[in-house]
Amino acid sequence: MVNLGLSWSFSSHEQVILTALNVSGSALSFLGSLFIMTTYLWNQSLQKLAFQLLFYVSIADIIRSFGNLWGNLSDGNACKAQGFLSEFGGVASFFWIGFISVIMYGIVFEKGRWDTVTVEKLKRRAHWMIWPFALILAILPLTTDSYEDTGGWCFIGHESISQVWAFLCFYGWLWLVMLGTVILYCRLYSKLTDLQLNKLQLKSSHVSDEPDATLNSSQLNDLRAPITDNYDIDEQRKMRKRMLHMVRRMFFYPS
């Protein structure tokens, strides 16, 4: 029996099942990430912001999946390497997912400030922050030899210091990113819902293109302004709806 530090234990048969499920899921994830990366590099028309961000998530996910493909390893250097790759790829993956939600939030709520140049600068900064930080978090458990066989795969173990590393280097950041992402998504959804309601209200108050001739020019402009705004809002709504759809797919992709 293998104790996981959380009062869980698995028999040898259960470990075999867990390993098979882990390897199978990792193989599918590896192939899916490889397909996305190959398609992105092969097709230049896809090399835009949305697919660039998905490409970075795929890089992180393929690192994590590659380590898990090794199966259930006994304690040793290979086990430590598997745990290291799983930690590094996993942390980098959900950091990029969090960055995607920040980008989408900025584009929707700060559209006047978040132009192409600004987004490119933020993307470069994200590379300099996410990859090195994920690497540091993956190295820290190595300092106390905390990567070990946890039952089905190798990861941060169940000793007291290992549990501290598990929270500080993985689960704490995972929960923080998930919470922040959910909050940003809720605000995005609320914003897009408001735009949709505004559009319906403008349609319901739509006036004729040929108003009464007795109205002066100032009144005519006041009447036509909502119609013009309606077109602008409609275009913005469509763009933001596409962005939100993309974010939803990216959020659930690595799981």
TrEMBL record:
Domain of life: Eukaryota
Recorded topology in the membrane: Multi-pass membrane protein
Gene Ontology biological process terms, A to Z: adenylate cyclase-activating G protein-coupled receptor signaling pathway; cell surface receptor signaling pathway
Subcellular location, record wording: Membrane
Residues covered by the G-protein coupled receptors family 2 profile domain: 18-185
Transmembrane segments: 20-42, 49-70, 90-108, 128-144, 164-186
Name by which UniProt lists this protein: G-protein coupled receptors family 2 profile 2 domain-containing protein
Annotated source species: Reticulomyxa filosa
